[in-house]
Automatic annotation (TrEMBL):
This is Glycosyl transferase. The chain crosses the membrane at residues 25-43, 98-125, 131-151, 182-215, 227-245, 320-337, 349-369, 375-395, 402-421, 433-452, 459-479. One of its GO terms (cellular component) is plasma membrane. It comes from Amycolatopsis keratiniphila. Residues 1-21, 486-508 are annotated as: Disordered. Residues 83-237 form the Glycosyltransferase RgtA/B/C/D-like domain.
């Protein structure tokens, strides 16, 4: 019976469906999906202003200076960079250079990346499981709350997600004919993912490699050789910029923000690498653009307590876990029913790739003890959507048998129950929705378990209600997220009682219009200097001028040093020093610089800030 069941469920069937000419309805449905996604992501886009002001200020600097664009400098004078590699800034700055710098041009590229991600996920899933599965996967990604959040916000995660999906598409293409060229392109996508958000991009590599090793139609030796070539592609596509930074004279480029030794590789392995997984500073989390020092335990913005249930907890649960229980059930079912299929089976290969992506990423996010924020989960969303779509459609095709019906019924029931639990965490928000989902889930799961009516129209009704049951909760939550403005550096999805949804410092609020007007009138290389990058970012956006963020994000970076700062002042390169902001941590120069300024210059007050004029 297992062999007969596999012929219904595994890609022998899915692959045939995927290669048949599409019906007339497919193209309009795809265009409709992309149009609806664009509407969701561009709707009320500018309500969040510049989004994350830290990265928005770097974009502004990149429009003012080519070197700032290349290195991702926070200031156009190139004192130091943001604490991430600059690939996402390259894209957004290019858009802002062409269309002018504004809140819209800062956020629009992320929305376009979201639409592209949905379309590319559709194409990838369609190749193995047909257009219906592809449409479901694309739609599930589009309405995942964390996707509706991050594709409208200017953190690097939007580009990272698009590049990882591109890597998945190239891997599937490579598996089909054991193509080293397509596999190398997958490596290039991951390599540029590294230049977007460093080692987080590498979380998909085990899944990509395993899927190719298992399913590519070539000898073991050739498969291993092709994988080696893909690793080389990753190294080259990521390493060229690391080499560029290391070879560039340090006195002619900005300091690499967040690193201990002015090294991009050290930043990748330390602060943005192993430090994220194993923790930093004795268990304390020193916020990257995400927040101040925090223990993280119990803190929603810092992921809550680590452990196996973190993805379902208060921090990550509402962001991404709506379909995660169904995906886990579907992955087990899909791999079981394809266990005796041919080695090159497409559905099993797809489940290995997407399921491996989902499991590795979920486990790393769950157990990492360093800095972690809920919005990181957007990189997990495509894999969950794909696994549910592939396994769900495969099980539906095998519904004539009891075993697939049991698994499919369980996927529907668990999704309904979990959606009810997640919605109950916001009991005052649309309370009827969770009861509707619970009712639909009970009825639909029972009908599927007992047996779907053989009549085609009734079967279509059951299929539609099943999809509605699985997707209603995440859709409602995702639309609510998209309708809200978000501020600070730790945006959070879901309903809110205020006008904005987010955590962390909202830098724009820290800068008065009066100070912005004063800085706008300056003509020096830097209008001002202040303690920490987030304070400098708000001043840059308020004035349109370059401001030095002494010490970087948390005041710990040794840039500029006191000697360098004194030389800038002696050269007449800085007009003002503005007291306040955050930072002053050990290793940075913000404390000694502020002390030197207070001892040698006269303080005045602008708005509510203490200001020193440094020009004689």
């Amino acid at each position: 019976m297992t062999t007969a069941l596999a012929s219904r469920v595994e890609p022998g069937h899915a692959g045939e469906t995927a290669t048949k000419p599409p019906g007339r309805w497919v193209r309009p449905a795809v265009f409709g999906l992309l149009a609806a996604t664009a509407l969701l992501y561009f709707w009320n886009l500018t309500a969040s202003g510049y989004g994350n002001s830290f990265y928005a200020a770097a974009v502004q600097s990149g429009t003012q200076d080519w070197k700032a664009w290349l290195f991702g400098s926070l200031d156009a004078g190139n004192v130091l960079t943001v604490d991430k590699p600059p690939a996402a800034l390259w894209v957004t700055t290019a858009f802002a250079r062409i269309f002018g710098f504004s809140g819209f041009t800062v956020l629009a590229p992320q929305a376009l990346m979201g639409v592209a991600s949905v379309g590319l996920l559709y194409l990838t899933v369609k190749r193995t499981s047909g257009p219906i599965a592809g449409l479901f996967a694309g739609a599930a990604l589009a309405v995942t709350p964390v996707a509706a959040l991050m594709f409208k916000f200017n953190n690097p995660d939007a580009l990272l997600t698009l590049l990882l999906i591109a890597g998945g598409y190239c891997t599937i293409r490579a598996i089909e004919k054991a193509s080293p060229r397509w596999l190398a392109l997958a490596g290039v996508a991951v390599g540029f993912g590294f230049l977007t958000k460093m080692m987080q991009a590498f979380l998909v590599l085990p899944a990509f490699g395993l899927a190719y090793l298992v399913a590519a139609p070539a000898s073991l030796g050739k498969r291993l050789l092709h994988l080696f070539g893909a690793v080389v592609a990753v190294v080259v596509s990521a390493g060229w910029f690391i080499a560029l930074v290391d070879l560039w004279p340090t006195d002619s480029r900005p300091y690499i923000g967040g690193s201990d030794g002015d090294s991009l590789l050290e930043l990748a392995l330390g602060y943005n690498g192993l430090g994220r997984i194993f923790g930093m500073g004795g268990g304390m989390m020193v916020g990257g653009p995400g927040g101040a020092v925090s223990s993280g335990v119990g803190n929603v913005g810092f992921g809550g307590e680590s452990g196996l249930t973190r993805m379902f907890g208060a921090s990550f649960g509402g962001e991404v876990s709506w379909l995660l229980p169904a995906a886990l059930i579907g992955l087990v079912a899909g791999l079981w029913f394809t266990r005796r299929a041919a080695g090159t089976d497409r559905t099993r290969a797809a489940l290995i790739m997407w399921g491996g992506w989902m499991l590795v990423t979920s486990l790393v996010f769950s157990f990492m003890s360093g800095i972690v924020h809920p919005y990181y989960a957007v990189a997990l969303a495509p894999s969950i959507a794909a696994v549910v779509a592939i396994s769900g459609t495969s099980l539906w095709r095998g519904r004539a048998y009891l075993a697939p019906r049991v698994f499919l019924s369980l996927m529907i029931a668990v999704s309904a129950v979990w959606a009810y639990i997640l919605l109950d965490r916001h009991a005052d928000w649309l309370p009827a929705v969770r009861w509707i989902i619970a009712g639909l889930g009970l009825v639909t799961a029972t009908v599927v378990l007992v047996g779907v009516p053989p009549m085609r129209k009734l079967a279509a009704v059951v299929a539609t209600v099943s999809v509605l049951t699985i997707g209603l909760g995440t859709t409602a939550y995702g639309i609510e997220t998209a309708s809200r403005s978000h501020s600070g550096s730790i945006p959070i999805s879901g309903p809110s009682t205020g006008d904005e949804r987010g955590m962390g410092m909202g830098p724009e609020e820290e800068s008065s219009a009066e100070i912005g007007a004063v800085l706008a009138a300056t003509t020096t290389k830097w209008a001002a200097a202040t303690s920490s990058s987030q304070s400098a970012a708000s001043l840059e956006l308020a004035s349109g001028k370059s401001v030095i963020g002494i010490g970087g994000w948390s005041g710990r970076d040794p840039a500029p040093t006191l000697t360098e700062f004194q030389q800038y002042v002696a050269n007449g390169d800085i007009t003002y020093y503005i007291e306040g902001g955050r930072g002053g941590g050990p290793g940075g120069g913000s404390n000694e610089i502020s002390e030197w300024v207070a001892e040698n210059f006269t303080a005045t007050t602008v708005g509510e800030r203490t200001v020193y004029r440094l020009l004689s």
